[in-house]
Specification:
The chain is mostly helical. The protein has helices at 2-11, 16-41, 49-70, 72-77, 79-99, 127-149, 157-179, 184-200, 205-228, 230-236, 241-251, 262-273, 296-329, 334-357, 375-421, and strands spanning 106-108, 114-119, 123-125.
Length: 426
């Protein structure tokens, strides 16, 4: 019991908990402020949706506390069990989507996406959100085990290639299943945070620059083809037309305001209407769809103005910084790679969500963590937050042990030096 209390006493010195509470608070207020807009698309939406979100977060906080008590080492031992557990529902969604075989509890969206299970008495659950936890745990273990076997000075092209093959073998199966749902947003999140973990693994820079340059070329070429020759993508590469329509709305939101560009154009008008201090709680001055989920940042801009958006961005930045600080505390350990992966998830999702809301990036359906409404997203990120807190506790212990070791070594060396070399006058 004393050990558990000591763990939570250490957390009192970490401001990340304060940042998270403030971010969640902004999210609760923004969700409630978005209810009048959300009811236009979802007439049966209850007025207490913010209360429901708070329930999800509270449940997540309870699980996060359990994660802190259990510790990262024990959770690491369960990494493949967690990974395999969430692969099963992903396979069920794929079988339903691909072969039209009835799978119990599968829920199909109006646009044909198959990403959820509808659990009676609980609601919908999105396995891909929880699969991210399994992937980050497994990839961190692969990197740590590889680095212990091949120290930095012994690395070669063969050892680096071996590491990449092992990571891809773990990451590609769930990523492809998620992409086929189709859910390109979460697929991109997974690929980004895994790439960041590989970058931090110590792999040789020339390989990183080569692959990074190749990705930049492919993305640039794809965007050019969307704008100049979309028929090649739809007819030759068989890419769904509705996916490309998002780019049309991104290129010219106000010119396509009647169709593809409507959501972005209305979102930009909503943010612009907020000016400095906003139009007030539940102003609903400009309508746009998915106000309580994908476009929650536009609600903050419209109702609480530039001040509200800046506070949100600053808090997200401070929160991310503390995760990186935790990774630094655990440098060279398994926990460090876990924290880097979690940072990559959050950072990409924050940049993508805010970027798509203000027109800098195409709309992908990615939500804003801890702010947008979503049961699966909130619960999964609270679990990840628990991993960060547990890693912070371990990092503090590592730091103190290193300091104690150096102080003890310095003392012994100094004592021996005095004994052997210092002469006192009689």
């Amino acid at each position: 019991m004393r050990t558990i209390l000591n763990k939570f006493r250490i957390l009192l010195y970490n401001p990340i908990i304060v940042y998270l509470i403030l971010i969640i608070g902004i999210g609760i207020v923004a969700i409630q402020s978005a209810i009048p807009l959300a009811k236009i698309n979802y007439p049966n939406l209850p007025a207490n949706y913010a209360t429901k979100q708070l329930m999800f977060v509270s449940l997540g906080a309870f699980v996060a506390i359990l994660v802190v008590i259990i510790g990262v080492d024990r959770i690491r031992a369960l990494r493949w069990w967690i990974y395999g557990f969430w692969m099963i529902p992903l396979l069920g969604l794929f079988i339903y989507k691909k072969f039209h075989i009835p799978i119990p509890l599968v829920k199909e969206a109006t646009n044909g996406a198959v990403s959820w299970y509808n659990l009676p008495g609980i609601g919908t659950i999105q396995p891909s959100e929880f699969m991210k936890i399994g992937i980050v745990l497994v990839v961190a273990d692969i990197i740590q085990t590889h680095n212990e076997r091949y120290p930095h000075l012994t690395r070669t092209f063969k050892t680096d290639l071996h590491l990449l093959v092992k990571i891809m073998a773990a990451v590609l199966p769930p990523s492809l299943l998620i992409f086929k749902q189709p859910d390109s947003g979460i697929t991109m999140i997974i690929l980004f945070f895994v790439a960041l973990m590989i970058f931090a693994s110590g792999i040789q820079w020339r390989y990183i620059l080569s692959v990074g340059g190749f990705v930049v070329v492919i993305v640039t070429l794809f965007i050019l083809l969307v704008g100049v020759f979309p028929e090649f993508l739809t007819e030759t590469l068989k890419i769904d037309l509705y996916k490309l329509s998002r780019f049309s709305g991104w290129f010219d939101p106000f010119g396509t305001m009647g169709n593809e560009g409507m959501q972005l154009a209305k979102g930009l008008l909503a943010i612009g209407s907020g000016n400095l201090i906003g139009n007030g709680f539940q102003s609903s001055l400009v309508y746009f769809p998915e106000a309580h989920t994908d476009f929650i940042f536009a609600v903050i801009g419209m109702d609480f103005g530039l001040i509200g958006t800046l506070i949100t961005v600053i808090l997200c930045g401070l929160f991310d910084y503390e995760i990186l600080n935790t990774a630094t505390l655990n440098r060279g350990h398994y926990n460090s790679y876990v924290c880097i992966g979690i940072f990559g998830m959050l950072f990409f999702q924050q940049i993508e969500n805010i970027g798509m809301t203000i027109g800098l990036l195409p709309i992908t359906g990615v939500t804003l963590p801890f702010v947008s409404y979503g049961g699966s997203s909130s619960l999964s990120y609270m679990i990840l937050f628990g991993l960060v807190l547990a890693s912070y506790i371990e990092g503090i212990k590592i730091k103190h042990n290193e300091v104690d070791y150096h102080e003890r070594t310095l003392y012994l060396k100094t004592k021996a030096y005095i004994k052997d070399n210092v002469k006192f006058d009689d």
